Amino acid sequence: MLNIKDISKTYRLAGNYQIVHALSNVSFTAKPGEIIGIIGKNGSGKSTLLKIISGLVSPSEGEVKFNGKISSLLEIGGGIHPELSGRENYFLKGQMMGMSKNNLQEKYEALIDFTELHDFIDEPVKHYSNGMYMRLALGIGLTAKADIYLFDEVISVGDAGFQQKCFSIIQNLAKSGAIILMVSHNLNELEKYCNRFIWLEKGKIHQSSSDDAILNDYLDFQFQKNYQLDKSLNLIADDVSITGLKIFNGRGASIKIQNLDPINIEISLIKTNSSTIFSLSTVIQDFSGLPIFSIPTFTNSENEDSRHEKQLTLWTTIEGAFLNPGFYTISIYLYVNDDLHRFKNVLSFSIHQSENDALRMFAKGFVRNNFEWKVCRE
Amino acid sequence: MRILKKESIHNANNFSLSEYVNLIDNHRQLWITLAKRDIKVKYVQSKLGLLWSIIQPMTAILIYSLFFKYVFKLEFNEYPYYLYVFAGILPWTLFSYLLNQGSYSLIQNQELIQKLNFPKLLLIGAKALVSMVEIMPALIILLIVTFISGNANYLGWIFIPFIILLNLMVAIIPPLWISAFSLRYRDTLHAIPYLGNFGSWLTPIFWVPENSPMIIQQLTNYNPLTFVLYLYRWALFGDNIIWNGLWSMLFFIGIFLPFGLMYFKNQEKHIIDLI
Question: What is the ipTM of this complex?
């Protein structure tokens, strides 16, 4: 059980006597088995919260009550000494967490196994590669037997295999009753790991939920000020320049795009040489830049006639109930005179949840389809 | 099952004495490990290793003996002068090591402090252990040389561990206060070289109080380390103890040490915010 009660933290800035409220009146309770993802902008108090829970920093007000031990990995390489070997670092850090030597000895094999450092464990850490260093640090944090684990931006290290190993270890820890809190800016990672989310905004809990829809709300909120759905551009690729990109609700009903509405995209172009032939592709990506699908021009033969126009506007429609609610970005790939020009993340847009969406609880992933399940008849 | 696990609380209140003692007790293995780390890191890439801890006092003895015996013609006939200097250099080495290393221990270990939660007093505690380990090789040599030269006061030797403890208690006072104050006022760190420089003269390491002007004798008696040196020389060679220095030592150990520890305890939770 982890009980956070009315935690506030104020700092006094060194030069002037201004007081900064890093956290104000944060309260929540975490139960065994919960993997809590903490989201929030830089400076929203996420790291301070973890530091206070770990006991590293004391709160200005309020208290943290918990049972058992806390293992915290607040930064990769925290407390790892370059002159000492991996083994010595393990024992040093383990003891700092209040573990006994015998206890650490018991877990030593598991550490070697996890970090894959077999031959290197007795080498001074300064000779380690970056990856080995990170595996050691994470290994020490995870091998330590604790009841509460705190991770600050440290989980996504190592290759895919290693990440998979981290994933299953953390899942098992939660299953055996540990509480895990993690801070990350990588929302994909949080979505994968966590079964509860806490969203901090300016040191306060803005929202807290076990539904991962909160991640979309968060992205939407975060980018609200930054996205413009009708953008003037000046992207020059040889003889062709893109002068504008516009995205709007195909129903024209409201500015807000909801997931059941069709989405229209318009691209305005100018050609300096009217005989130039080009093709382009708009790539729809998720918030992290991962491409989901693309709409290339050459599938559209009706554009053939307008190829020689100097100034033209292309438009397309993404039909309603195709993209799920979420935050997306568009990149434009322009192919002119045998050269490919990539304009990345030209525009961002957000698709909101339609109120009358019957599938809102089931439609996971980025896109929907009309594949169906049927009952087998003999 | 899980409910049975010990409940802990993190809040804004300073540690109570019993909480703090418990906390340190839980981390006692760490204390040793930190000391080991300090020693390892210091000597890990030097070929001579712990031999350096002998070379340092030896060169000091050589230089003082040369100058005071042959340049300043110091009169000292009870036993070889180099033994007198040797017995003074040892406690001073321990004192100045702790002064220089212990005072900076919080600032030096900023990274550790910012990432791991442990009682910071152990950082100074570890330096105290290291300082003891550092003088051991030289102490053994001193005992051997004293034995060979035939000036030994064997009965006194059994008190040496106790005297080292007094030596440590006096030596830990300046770093305790300086490091705790250095969080808010880095100025205190500037005091270290002065304490080191003046201290080495205001402690009878290489000169003899009995042959010195009264004012100098009185001044040295305010120095808590003076009596520790008398004790060493009494235990090793059977020198007379000058009791005037006792009060200063008792005063420092009785007042400045416990209050220093209390002050440090109350700083513990603020260290990370201030460093």
Answer: 0.78
